[in-house]
Amino acid sequence: xxxxxxxxxxxxxxxxxxxxxxxxxxxxxxxxxxxxxxxxxxxxxxxxxxxxxxxxxxxxxxxxxxxxxxxxxxxxxxxxxxxxxxxxxxxxxxxxxxxxxxxxxxxxxxxxxxxxxxxxxxxxxxxxxxxxxxxxxxxxxxxxxxxxxxxxxxxxxxxxxxxxxxxxxxxxxxxxxxxxxxxxxxxxxxxxxxxxxxxxxxxxxxxxxxxxxxxxxxxxxxxxxxxxxxxxxxxxxxxxxxxxxxxxxxxxxxxxxxxxxxxxxxxxxxxxxxxxxxxxxxxxxxxxxxxxxxxxxxxxxxxxxxxxxxxxxxx
Length: 315
What we know:
Layout: E1 8-15, H1 18-28, E2 32-39, E3 42-51, E4 60-65, E5 78-87, H2 91-100, E6 106-110, E7 113-119, E8 125-131, E9 152-159, H3 163-172, E10 177-182, E11 185-189, E12 197-201, E13 215-222, H4 225-237, E14 246-247, E15 251-257, E16 263-271, H5 296-301
Parallel strand pairs: 1-4, 5-8, 9-12, 13-16
Antiparallel strand pairs: 1-13, 2-3, 3-4, 5-9, 6-7, 7-8, 10-11, 11-12, 14-15, 15-16
C-alpha cells in the first residue's frame, strides 16, 4: 500500500495558564481561536484550538491548559520545535513585533533558510520562517494584518531517540521524501504546501519529560474518512499498533508511538471546526459534545473565564 500524507494536520501541547495561552497565540502571534472546548477525558480542563480564519488543516495548534501541571523537559520523543511559516519578506516585521512585545528572539539558519526562534510563556519552542508557498491567511487581529499573518505550520523539528528509525518511518510509511542533510539534521518533505518540512536530529537524543511547555503529539493529515481507514491498516501492516479510530468531533483520529518515542496521530481533514458553529462565530462559545451538554453548567463553573483580547502593546 502506497500512502502519502500531505503534512501536519495539527500539533497539541501542554501549558499551564489558559488566559496566558490565549494572549500569546491570539494576542502576540495573531492566530484565531477557532474552537473553545474541553479535554474530553478531563472536562475540567479546556482544549483550545488556534489556526487561520477557519482552522484549516496544517494551521492548527491545540492546547490543554493544566493550571497545576508540572514543568516539562523538552527532549527526545517529542516535537522539539514547532515551525510557523509567514509570508516572504515579513521576518523583519515579526522580529520588530516580538521584540516590542518583550518576546526574546534568536536568529538562526538551517538548510539555507533564516529562522526567528523564541518560546511561548510556558517555554514551548517555536520558530518563524518566511516562504512563498502556502496560502495566505485571511485573518487579522491586534497588530497583525492579514498580509503579515502566519499562514500555518512550516513544519516541525522532531527530537527522536532513534532518528534512523524515525526517518525510515517518515519515508517508507508516511510517504515523505528525504531531501537533504545538513549539520545536525536530516530534512524531509511531505506533499502539501503547509506543514510539509520536517527536520529530524541525526544523533539520538535522551528522552524528555512531558509537562507544561512540551508537545504531547503531532498529527498528520488524512484527506477523508476512507483514506483514514486505509492509514490505520497501513500503519498496522508496517508493525505499529494504532488505536481504534476515535471521534474527536472536528476530525477522526488514530494514534501510535513511533520507534523514536514520538506520539503520532493521523487525523482526517473533515468535518472541520464549522460543524457546530458558524464560521463568523468560531471560538466565541464553549462548545461541548452532546454527551457533556447535560453537565454544561457544572463544567462552565469549573473553568476559569478566558477572553481573546488585543494586547496593550497593540492599542
